[in-house]
Amino acid sequence: xxxxxxxxxxxxxxxxxxxxxxxxxxxxxxxxxxxxxxxxxxxxxxxxxxxxxxxxxxxxxxxxxxxxxxxxxxxxxxxxxxxxxxxxxxxxxxxxxxxxxxxxxxxxxxxxxxxxxxxxxxxxxxxxxxxxxxxxxxxxxxxxxxxxxxxxxxxxxxxxxxxxxxxxxxxxxxxxxxxxxxxxxxxxxxxxxxxxxxxxxxxxxxxxxxxxxxxxxxxxxxxxxxxxxxxxxxxxxxxxxxxxxxxxxxxxxxxxxxxxxxxxxxxxxxxxxxxxxxxxxxxxxxxxxxxxxxxxxxxxxxxxxxxxxxxxxxxxxxxxxxxxxxxxxxxxxxxxxxxxxxxxxxxxxxxxxxxxxxxxxxxxxxxxxxxxxxxxxxxxxxxxxxxxxxxxxxxxxxxxxxxxxxxxxxxxxxxxxxxxxxxxxxxxxxxxxxxxxxxxxxxxxxxxxxxxxxxxxxxxxxxxxxxxxxxxxxxxxxxxxxxxxxxxxxxxxxxxxxxxxxxxxxxxxxxxxxxxxxxxxxxxxxxxxxxxxxxxxxxxxxxxxxxxxxxxxxxxxxxxxxxxxxxxxxxxxxxxxxxxxxxxxxxxxxxxxxxxxxxxxxxxxxxxxxxxxxxxxxxxxxxxxxxxxxxxxxxxxxxxxxxxxxxxxxxxxxxxxxxxxxxxxxxxxxxxxxxxxxxxxxxxxxxxxxxxxx
Length: 694
Known about the structure:
The protein is of the alpha+beta class. Helix 1 packs antiparallel against helix 12.
């Protein structure tokens, strides 16, 4: 795609500044080597497999798609549907090696390319294609790499070997939509440590309604369909089985009617499996131990919440001494508890439990005061003592760890550093991403009596006293925080500011990382709290920033942010004067079960809440300019959401804009997002009278 704006051209060419960054870093069990995915530079989108030697600090290219399969295009259309949809779930659009699985010593790695499976000898850099029965997905080796399990045509197979799952019409070895998109489980099969058995998910989607996608730009092509768990309707029937090649199959038994969601699973040795299950409204989460020989399960821990159990990655976790670490929320803090005893105090907001490291202590990622920052700590599970491993404003995270080695990613407003800490010292891990063009300095503040995190970003070189139209650049929904000292999320916002706007961002109640009470304020209704908070924050910021022209306020957003943008002009035209709404879920009765029901409950139990959050009925009242944008290949927020609102607006005689994007998914990859920005800019400049800063 052609981009004439220098920033948009650079953003598109560098994959929003992601090309060349290392990803999926995996350390060997002895921490001597690391495997990772990365392209060859900042404008190369094709990810390759690299080996890094920690002793020498040297990296080696071990698998290059261009050499292994030179005829491939890397097009998403060439991927098996299961893999294409998984990439959409994890927001991955790189056309190279999307994922790999390796033996514990990293001597061998396996990966798929366009449905073909390859085994790589990482010492020699030699890749060998393995025979598969059909286009394959998610190959995984056993412990010594001699056998690889993979999914083809919805069945679980071995190479060398044959089909290992029954031919019963179900999908085997995959994670269903709800698990991938909402519950954090991306896998559907796991090898036993001794390689004699597989734990496999059996997914029956026969009760689910189908979602259909047709490409109007190619009417000669048949529409594509897939099963979708719609709020209030049936979920996929998910079971776990132990499959033994050439032997008997054993089903793990728990109350799947009461606890239909499997959020995590895996082997804890050849004789035990651990799995985490949740009830439909996610108010009860169980950690179960299972006997792979008999399928019998036993409860190890239970986490309950009257609202919902907010997922805390890494928990529940059973420690080496048998005790169980779980999330433990108070109204003021996200914490962790060991066998029910809270370990952390209320100054921490725990965001992830990474796992054990050094002397039985636990690596955790947590907020420590300002929700815009995240730090890495070592937590002693015996005493609750904390050691802080990172410092300074920013978002610090653990990318990999093993033995005495720690790979940290530290993102600050000055840039991103990947630091490898070993007993010998600290070094930078190879990163070839483009230098970020902007070094924004958003003015952060906690506003209103609720302490809403907010930011104002002015054009570079802005002169005090010049009134600017306001652009509220918003997300506002559960599960994602916008206000953070992380540089990439401010790059596009700075571009918008330089087009002549004062860019305002607010994390309203319902967003994470402030406190559980803050997050749960949207229980059983999304719209009102978000709208009230954003309006109150705008007014509070206007009182201390006289250059914000609150008579010219535009709002833009994508996904939940698109929902809020449309909501804003439909219900508060006195405050918001124009909106650009991208991929908005306009009626949550049409969205998926696991996300929507966690917050709103079942539609049949909360019809008033669902009706209040639906935008379609507001169509006759539109009095402000509204631009609707949607990719017609969006399998997350189906384009029906936007089209139903557009239809209602048309029937009501309310003018609006509609930008429909054939072949574009929810990610809007490959420069599409930047092209959309051009359209949004023309719309918002016209409606708000913005001019670039001199």
